[in-house]
Each structure stands twice: as C-alpha cells, then as structure tokens.
Specification:
homodimer; alpha+beta; Glutaredoxin; 57% helix; EC 5.99.1.4 (chains A, B); glutathione peroxidase activity (chains A, B); 2-hydroxychromene-2-carboxylate isomerase activity (chains A, B)
Chain lengths: 201, 201
C-alpha cells in the first residue's frame, strides 16, 4: 500500500496568517489521513520574485491587515498578540528549522510551532540573536549551538535552495499549501483545502 | 423600533470575487435580518488610491488567481466561465447602476446581478457599448436611454463621488463589506461575516 501523499505547507516565521494556519494544518490533514511536509521560507524572497510587497507596506491596507490578523486568529480560536517590531527578518529561525529538519522533520515542525507561538503570543523577537538563542535553549538546543547553526554557510545555503525550490513550485506568499499538485494560498483557504481533501474538487 | 442597519457591499463589475460574493451576500444578510446596501465602484480607482494593482497583473500570481477564481466559484456553487477580455473597464455598467439606484435601489441591485452574471457566465463584454446597451435592453432599459445615461456628466460625476466615498470609508479592494463599522475584504471572508452577524466577534 502506498503512503498517503504529504501536503506541502510553506510558512514564514513572521507571517501572522502562517502562524494561524500552523495551528490547524496538521489536525486538518490528520482527519484526512495525510501527513504534512513543513517548509520554512522567507516571504521577502518570494515577494521579490513575484514583484509583490507585504500587505502592511501599503498604507491603506495596513490598518485593515492588522485588524484582520487579530480577527482571523480569534475566529480560529488561536491566541494572538500583535508583536512589535513587525515584520521581522526570519532567516535565522528558518536556518534552525532546516538544520533540525535534516535529521528529524517532526522536531523541526515542533521548532516551527515554538517559534511562531513565541513571536505571535509573547513577542519574542526572532530576529534578535540573543532572543532567538534563548528560545532555542528553552526548546532544548544549547544557545551556542543555535548561534553556530545560524552562522553556518551550510544552512544559509540550504535555506537559499529551499526558497528557490518554493518559488519554482509556484509559491508567492505564505501560508501556501500544495495538495496533490493543487495550490492554495492563505489561511482563509482552510475550508477549500478541507473540501478538496474530502474529494470535493 | 429601529430598522436593522444595512451591510455595505462594494463591488466592481469586472471582479470575479465580487461576482461570487454578489450571489450570497443578500441571502446571508437576510438570515440575520439585515438589508444590504450595494455600491458599484471602480477597482482601478481604489487600487490607485491604495497604490495596489490587480492580482492578475503580477505574472506569478496571475496563474494562481485564475485557478482560484474558478475554484472559489465552484466551491460556492456559482456558475463561472472565465471571460475574455478580462479585466475590463466597467464605468458604464456602474453609471447605469447609480442611475437606477437614484430612484429604485432594488432595481439597481438586480442590474448589478444581471451585469455580473452576463460577464462571468456568458462573457458579455460590459466595456463594449453595444454589448452593454444590448444587455440593458434585455433588462428593460431601452438601448438608447442606456447610452445616454452612460454619457451623462451627472452619472459620471455620481460614480466619481461614490468612488471617493468608498476610498474615504477605507475600501481598497472588492468585494468589500462594512458591517456595523467592521471592514471585511474578500469573498473569502464570508464565514467571518456570518459569524460576526451572529454576534461572534
């Protein structure tokens, strides 16, 4: 018997909608007997490739977006505190993700959840090396080792290749999901993904 | 007893997500005992004010958007045929809307539905004057009268003022909904609007 195909889930540690989606994607997939393959990416890189910008970079859209982040979290039942500074560069959190992923994808997923929750509920600034390594230490990665991983050309390069692969797969934002070749963009595509997995296509 | 407050619904005749939303907004509002106030606007004008562009103007986003238009319509149970040309200028369809609205808002809403359905199920090019006046004639507006309304400075000016009012109200895309002061952007906010109207805020 074949293993059921994984759902690809692309997220950025600084993306509110990625955070919200990260809280439901595995449970939703499990209801359909599907595993989830998590991919840490840098939204800034995909925005650049697609000639897009963050919604909060547009003055009129910013106010709405901040409101919608909080409302969408509330309606999903996910705790949410708007962090400041926001958005933040997340390459170091993502490098740690790919480092863990190389040997233990489930632990990488746990790290992703820990990072997203820390930023979006406690405002832990993942772009600040001492805050990041402090969080890593809480998670069980010695701070010094975490700092070494972030500075290691191997993981810098790995993240670069993963970003390129995401762009090649058509990813232009986050969260982004690919289910059996079908692309879904946004936390708000949850019910469509659920129906798609039920065979309602 | 006060009349229940209307939901403001902003749409553009060339917006696929506006079309899909136009097919559910009145039924959803009616379930909550609410009337709906329709507003024909020009997305190009709101995009300009917000420094935004249409999603289909971004190469990487275009392919996804076209797919998502059709999928979103299908999942909503709304017939949909991708029109060509697309997008189209819709100022004339919108002027006819505001002309009807001045004396009979319900009939203006019917015209909006007729125009959206004609464009998104039969590809009737609302930017083509003879196609537009032909549709108007089917709807019961003599073609010559429709052409006069479209050329009349009164309705050009009315549409301009309605666009300005929408921008002043914070509208930067379509469909856009304002419910008791709360803004919702996108066909995909349907369930949030439903829950908001149920008192789940």
């Amino acid at each position: 018997m074949n293993r059921p195909a994984a759902i690809d889930f692309y997220f950025d540690f600084s993306s509110p909608y990625s955070y919200i989606a990260s809280e439901w994607i595995n449970a939703l997939a499990a209801r359909h007997g599907r595993p989830v393959r998590w991919h840490a990416i840098l939204l800034g890189v995909t925005f650049q490739a697609a000639e897009l910008r963050s919604p909060v970079s547009y003055p009129l859209k910013r106010e709405y977006s901040l409101r919608d982040f909080a409302r969408s979290a509330r309606m999903e039942g996910v705790p949410y505190v708007m962090p400041s500074p926001f958005p933040i560069p997340t390459q170091n959190a993502a490098r740690l993700f790919w480092w863990l992923d190389a040997t233990d994808p489930a632990r990488a997923t746990d790290w992703a959840r820990a990072g997203l929750r820390a930023f979006f509920t406690r405002g832990v600034d993942l772009s600040n090396m001492s805050a990041l390594t402090g969080l890593a230490a809480e998670f069980g990665i010695p701070a010094e080792q975490a700092a070494q991983v972030c500075a290691d050309p191997i993981w810098k390069d790995k993240l670069r290749r993963e970003n390129d692969a995401a762009i090649a797969a058509g990813v232009f934002g986050a969260p982004f999901f690919i289910v059996d070749g079908e692309p879904f963009w946004g936390n708000d595509r949850k019910s469509q993904i659920d129906r798609w997995l039920s065979g309602d296509r």
